[in-house]
Design goal:
128 residues; 3 helices; 32% helix; extended
Length: 128
């Protein structure tokens, strides 16, 4: 049995931002195309953020940071921002080293212990 497609606009989940997958070696030559992709995703979805899945981005180089900074700038000019999903430890370290303010999914705020981690107490003090 077949059923007809529903009438009207397709259902869109407003809670799920659009995703752009960056894989392999991303070079500065690709900035224009990727920037157009980010701008298009922001405009088409009406979202404020585009999630960039960088889990398959390799090798991590300073040129990679340049591309990400330019994507963030493009997103800001379009009224949004980018958020990184699953960055490699090397990419996180470089982002922190250069102070590039790009949001990372699941990143723990500074000076806040991770969930499930107990702080050390002095001998004789009651556990919290």
């Amino acid at each position: 049995m077949t059923s007809a497609a529903p009438l009207g606009l397709p259902t869109v989940d407003a809670e799920t931002p659009p995703v752009l997958v960056l894989a392999g070696l991303v070079t500065p030559d690709e900035v224009a195309r990727l920037g157009n992709d980010v701008r298009g995703l922001l405009e088409a979805s009406g979202a404020e953020v585009v999630v960039c899945d960088v889990s398959a981005l390799w090798p991590i180089q300073l040129a990679t940071l340049d591309v990400l900074a330019r994507l963030q700038l493009t997103a800001r000019r379009a009224g949004g921002r980018i958020r990184l999903r699953d960055p490699a430890p090397a990419l996180r370290a470089l982002l922190d080293l250069v102070g590039l303010p790009i949001e990372v999914e699941g990143k723990i705020e500074q000076r806040e212990p991770a969930l499930g981690v107990e702080e050390e107490v002095e001998p004789g003090e009651p556990a919290l």
